[in-house]
Prior knowledge:
Blueprint: H1 2-8, H2 12-37, H3 43-60, H4 65-86, H5 92-112, H6 118-125, H7 133-152, H8 154-162, H9 164-169, H10 174-196, H11 201-213, H12 219-244, H13 248-272
Amino acid sequence: MVNTLLQMFSYGFMSRALAVGLLVSLCAALLGVCLVLKRYSMIGDGLSHVGFGTLSIAMALHLSPLFVSIPIMILAAFLLLRLSENSSLRGDAAIALVSSSALATGILVASLSGGMNADVHNYMFGSILAMSSGDVYLSVGLSLAVLVLFVCFYNNIFAVTFDEAFARATGTKVRLYNLLIALLTALTVVVGMRMMGSLLMSSLIIFPALTAMRLFKSFKAVVICAALTSLFSFLCGMVVSFLLSVPTGACIVLISLTLLLVFTLLEKGKKLF
């Protein structure tokens, strides 16, 4: 087994996939805790659909998909917040409106520009091993920026996550930090789509947070547990994908689901005893 792992990571593309995947998994887990607690967990799913539409348009115009999608994804994240706060559309309804429209646009553009080719397929279902050197550098840079901002503003993010009214009363700029969470989520989704695909990206955000909440109640404990389970799921998913020659994203999701079920059983056992 050890020899297999050494052989696995002796390939350059596997090393690049490992570096990007660990960082993206960590970012997704940290932000997932905030989004789940704020009952806004489906923003990852909505933004990934927006990202697919943007990437389809970028590829049809022969532009760099990641560079085109980053500003549009950020604007989409801010729009979702705006819709949920200041209109009759709330939460999931706003996300469904934006995400379904973007997904439909992406599918139409992809069909008109030559059909569902390999690149479009990779962005829908993920292909972490197909990342170019440019993708890797950009992904690592964005992921590190997300982690640094999350750590620097941890206390304020914690405040607006648990009690916006109290945070506002104490002088915290609630709107600013909600926009920061949306910005960090948009960047994470952009980077993670290459690894997980637009159809599976939301699971990387939601599953680790839900898993950690089965056994832990404090915010710090949930964040740490979510980060560890996310990293574990990614590593196991990569190994299983390599050994069985199956899609990496699907393996990560199924391992995350398994961990969620195990933690749920542990929670029930803890209550019994």
